[in-house]
Amino acid sequence: MNLPNFMPAYTTAQGAAYVGDSRALLRDLPDGSVSLVLTSPPFALQRPKEYGNLDQHEYIDWLTEFAQLVYAKLRDDGSFVIDLGGAYQKGVPARSLYNFRVLLRFCDEVGFSLAEDFYWFNPSKLPSPIEWVNKRKLRAKDAVNTVWWLSKTPWPKADVSKVLAPYSDRMKKLMEDPEGFYTPKKRPSGHDIGRSFARDNGGAIPSNLLQIPNTESNGAYLAGCKLVGASGHPARFPAKLPEFFIRMLTDPGDLVVDIFAGSNTTGQVAETEGRAWLAFEERRDYVAASVFRLLDKSLSDEALRGAYESVLSGDGNDLSALYAGTRLRQVALI
Predict the structure, then answer these.
(1) Cα separations (Å) of 314 from 4, 279, 299, 333?
(2) Least confident range of 14-18, 45-49, 140-144, 283-287
(3) Is the pLDDT of residue 326 over 80?
(4) Partners of residue 19 on adjacent β-strands
(5) Please, which residues have CB within 8 angstroms of residue 15's CB and are 6 or more apart in sequence?
(6) SS3 of 283, please?
(7) What residues are annotated to the active site?
(8) Which of 143, 172, 257, 309 meets the CB 3.0–4.6 Å disulfide criterion with 125?
(9) Are residues 29 and 140 located together in one domain of the fold?
(10) How far apart are alpha carbons 300 and 124 in whole angstroms?
(11) Co-location of 273 and 298 in the same domain
């Protein structure tokens, strides 16, 4: 799906990336057309970041504007998944409650239901904040983000069987020899452990604690950024995070939208998973560099530079011939 009143920066077989304010771009979408909005907005951090962030009090009002638009654009069975990092209050080792206030505002005022709260544990995250963790050693490092799975109704489309986790070694042994590990009966907890407990269902039901390291260092995106001398987006999330929710909450052909697309990890995953996608990002340099996620890795350095520079400059050239045989069909400008 393309927007009727905006020109995409580039399109692929499955989606399109746009440069602009997500509020204006969202308004151009038909109501009830989106299956999943999945995003990680700039966090409400005390220290200014190059990708932009607001004071924590202003931040909640600002983000609620987007939530109201998202609510209107979602299908009745659609979902809104938002990744929010933790923060501290200014000047003291006490946590900010901004991410929980965001959740309450979205549910109490906008009308969302909290389908489930998720927590993304990044074991590779560096110790932070420096003042309270490294210098004064008053706090443990902050390595968990809150990820709110919100829905327009209490009954969003979802299928957890699409994101089953690998069985533990103990469970594998139990399935091989059920009688050697347990006796079917009702447990004191109330759980009725029957013989079917040892059935192989292809994997275990995942928990709402998602352990995903964020360690990308040698992928096509960073290689492309290095080639053209561009700085990679400083707050990228790993592909496994959007992959989990895209698989669980959508079907092939459904529309997935990221309203703070950054380096467009969401679009890359949606493309791979056969979902339609739209990426909205205010900074053209980030959109230009995101083409490296979707271009054929066999393209020459010259072709890669050409794609990047075309989106960055806004010259409007038709470069479709450059991408013959690749997933990227066209580069156009807003």
Answers:
(1) 19, 17, 21, 5
(2) 45-49
(3) no
(4) 281
(5) 267, 270, 271, 276, 277, 278, 279
(6) coil
(7) 40-41, 83
(8) 143
(9) yes
(10) 33
(11) yes
